[in-house]
């Protein structure tokens, strides 16, 4: 099969930057069940590469844990969080203590470094990120970026820095060499 964005396990349903681009926070996790009944989880990273996680018992920070380990040897572990059997999300950790948390629908909602600093991705009802905030380990919290989308076709329109007030505007065209405008979707032409 050729990769064309249509034959992937974890399609980007919240993609918002036009053809050929994916934002770094558009990572997802999805559960699949193979024909033999085995359960796997598939993580689509920031560039769209799909990584598989299979059941694995492992020792991490002197604790015996059961969860899912990546099959690519990246040193990533995935645990499924649940309350009373209902899913509440997924937590991915690496060998150095960095974490990525995905909500119960599989969308990335925060990342945390080994020092405890967290970056949150607030999403709207269409799972598009509308703001990015930082929660530092010293208790400082602030919103860094606000994102807006066109109402007609839902592509990213602006990214604004809350601290500086500077705004980046996105322009698209319906063809790869067409006129760039904010009122169309298709190919991201300029920022």
Largest sheet: 13 strands, antiparallel
Task: Determine the number of helices (DSSP H or I, runs of at least 4 residues).
Answer: 0
* Arrangement of strands in the largest sheet: 1-2-3-4-5-6-7-8-9-10-11-12-13
Sequence stretches where pLDDT stays below 50 over 5 or more residues: none
Total E-strand runs:
15
Large-scale geometry:
globular
- Average of per-residue pLDDT values: 84
Q: Helical percent range?
A: under 10%
N- and C-termini, Cα separation: 33 Å
Model description:
- This protein is mainly beta.
- It is 0% helix and 50% strand.
- Strands 1-2-3-4-5-6-7-8-9-10-11-12-13 form a 13-stranded antiparallel beta sheet, with no helix packed on it.
- A hairpin with a 5-residue loop joins strand 7 (99-102) and strand 8 (108-112).
- It is globular, with a radius of gyration of 19 Å.
- The chain starts with 27 loop residues before the first strand and ends with a strand.
